[in-house]
Amino acid sequence: MKKITERLLSWASILEENTLEQARTSSRMPFIYPHLALMPDAHLGLGATVGSVIPTLGAVMPAAVGVDIGCGMIAVKTQFTALDVAARVAGGTPLSDLREQIERAIPLSAGGRNNKIVATAAPRVAELEALAVEAGFDPATRAKAWALQLGTLGSGNHFIEVSLDENDQVWLFLHSGSRGVGNRIAQHHIKVAQALMTKWWIPLADRDLAYLVEGTPEFDRYIAELRWAQHFALLNREEMMDRVIRQLGDFMGAAVEDVERINCHHNFTQKETHFGKSVWLSRKGAISARAGQAGLIPGSMGTASYVVAGRGNVLALESSPHGAGRSHSRSAARREFTHEQSREAMVGIEFRDTAAFIDEIPAAYKPIDQVMADAADLVEVRHMLRQILNVKGD
C-alpha cells in the first residue's frame, strides 16, 4: 500500500498518471471520509476512477457508482471434472456445441433481449415489479423493455465462461450487470446531480463528480432506484446462470449439482461503518472483501480468474479489486492489436472467433498476476480458474 495523500491510499503498482490525477481530484471532494482507496486494477473512468472505493458522508456521486449499476460476477462450482468433459468430447460432442447452446439460450450483445419472459424469469420479474412499487417508480419510464432484458449478457467485457480450477473441477462463471435499465437510471440521476450543481452555483473540478445530498428528495429517489437496479443486476446473473446450468447439464447428459455459488456486485453503493462513522460506500470496480467473505476476481479473456476470501483490510475499507483493469482503451487496443494476436491469446479455449473481440484481448488489460500480487493483503486466493470455453457479445 502506498499513501499518496492523507485522503488517498493506493494498492496499485501499475498506475497511469492521468488515473492518479483523477483519483486525487475525487479524493478532494469535501465529504470523503476518511480516504479514497485505489485498488490494484485502477484505471481511468467517468468522473471517478474505475477500481476505487469511495466513502462519503451525507452525499453520493452517481457517476462514482458507475453507469452499469450492480455490475458484477457470479460463479457456480459443479460436480464435473476435466475428465468428465474430455469424455464427452471424445464421445463426439465438441465444446463448440456447448458454446452454441449457451449463445442460443442467452441473448448477447448491446441491446439484446428475450423474445418473451420465460418460466424461470417470470418469478424474478414479478419480484422486481413488486420492489419497484415499494421504491415508488416504474422502471419502464427508464427502459421500456427492461423485463425482456432479464437474463441477457450485454457486450464489452461481459462474458460467460466454463472454467477449471486447480483440482480440474468445472466452474461456471459469468459477468454482467443491470443492462439498459440500470444505465438509464444512472444517466438520469447523473444529469439530475449536474443540474443541481448548476442551480446552486457549486463549482466542480469535473462535472461528473456532481453529487446528491442526503436528506433531499433527489437523493432519496436515486437511492431507491439504485437499490432496485442493484437487485435487477443480481437476479439477471442468477437467471443467466440457471440457463447456463441447463445447457451444461444437456451437454454432459446429467443434471448439474450446484456445489457452491457466489454472486457479488462490483459497481454499487451501500451504507457501511468505517473508522467509527456511518458512510455511503461506493465501490466503482471493486468488491466487498470483509474477513472471510467470498468474492470473485476475473482476469481477462484468455487469462486466469480467482475465487477469493476477503481479509477485511481496514485501510482498504474492506474491499478488493474486481478484475484485471484496462491498460489500453478500447480504441487504443483496436489500433495496437490484431485479430491474429487475439486468436493466439485464445489458443486452447473454445470461443467465437471474430474481430469484434480485439479490444478484449488480454494484452489490453493489466497482468492479472500482478493485480493479485498487489491484492495479497486484501484477499486470500481460494481457487484459480482457467477457462476452457468463452462466450461474449459483440
Automatic annotation (TrEMBL):
Region annotation Disordered: where it falls in the sequence: 319-339
Name listed for the protein in its UniProt record: 3'-phosphate/5'-hydroxy nucleic acid ligase
Protein's UniProt keywords contain Coiled coil: no
Residues annotated as binding Mn(2+) 2: 175, 266
Source domain of life: Bacteria
Record EC number: 6.5.1.8
Active site: 322 (gmp-histidine intermediate)
Binding locations of Mn(2+) 1: 68, 158
Cofactor notes: Binds 2 manganese ions per subunit.
Listed cofactors: Mn(2+)
Catalytic activity: a 3'-end 3'-phospho-ribonucleotide-RNA + a 5'-end dephospho-ribonucleoside-RNA + GTP = a ribonucleotidyl-ribonucleotide-RNA + GMP + diphosphate
GO biological process: DNA repair; RNA processing; RNA repair
Record-listed GMP binding positions: 157-161, 266-267, 298-301, 305, 322-325, 392
Record organism: Subtercola boreus
Alphabetic keyword roster: GTP-binding, Ligase, Manganese, Metal-binding, Nucleotide-binding, RNA repair
Gene Ontology terms, MF aspect: DNA ligase activity; GTP binding; manganese ion binding; RNA ligase (GTP) activity
